[in-house]
Amino acid sequence: MRALSAFTCLALALAVQPAVAQDTAADAAMEGDRITVGIGGAYMPSYRGSDDYTVSPFPVIQGQVKGIGINPRAGGVALDFIPDNRASGFGVSLGPVATYSANRARGIEDDVVRAAGKLDEAVELGGTAGVTAYKLLSPYDSLTLSTDVRWDVAGAHKGMVWTPNLTYTTPLSRGSLVALNVGARHVDDDFARYYYSVTPAQSAASGLPVYDAEGGWDSINVGLLGGYDFDGDLLNGGFAAFGAVAYSKMLNDGKDTPFTSVRGDTDQWIAGLGLAYTF
Fold first, then answer.
1. CB count in 10 Å sphere of residue 209
2. Could you tell me if 165 and 181 are in contact, meaning their C-beta atoms sit under 8 angstroms apart?
3. Membrane-spanning regions, if any (predicted)?
4. pLDDT value for 25
């Protein structure tokens, strides 16, 4: 996964998990075991800050097993060890998160950026926490404020990433829903130097100017997801389709790095379609 963070944050709302229940039996079904698996294709930048676009497949897994929530991340997964009771109107999430990133490790479309050299793949481990309010504007909607904090353990950027997100989800009918997500990403100096700096050696190889990057907020994003259950009932599992569009704006050194300002674009778009099945 190279640049799927905005899109996959929306896939959290792939609440093709039941979202339109109100009666006791439906609430019990929502709190029982269920797994949604999906596959989709995304049209997205070839690296963060690129103006070249590629189509890439991505998997999604979401659900709950024995009270443990399973939620998708870009190239990874997060667990929630605190079960929610929707009837109370409030929920809390807390658990580990793991992601994989191949940003500028492969699939680079730009010849100049490729000449600067490929980077190593990153594996980020950390934690996620959040709070959810249910039944705000209708008996069936929810608003979730969450954040992930992750550290690279694979020896790539060796830094820390912090990603707060706010997601509002509401059904349009018993068989369809939409979710709106806004978020941001903060990176430390190690991350920024690895992805946004241009070293003298990279400058000599690519012709890009030398650049020394520092950490900070490197992007903000907003996106919209929609899902539709093929039999018109999100509560009973089966096949569903989902689609999303997301926009990210590169900020600070993520914007000013020559990889973006000279060879790429601060405006980043992602669009995707997918198919999911809930057991």
1. 10
2. yes
3. none
4. 43
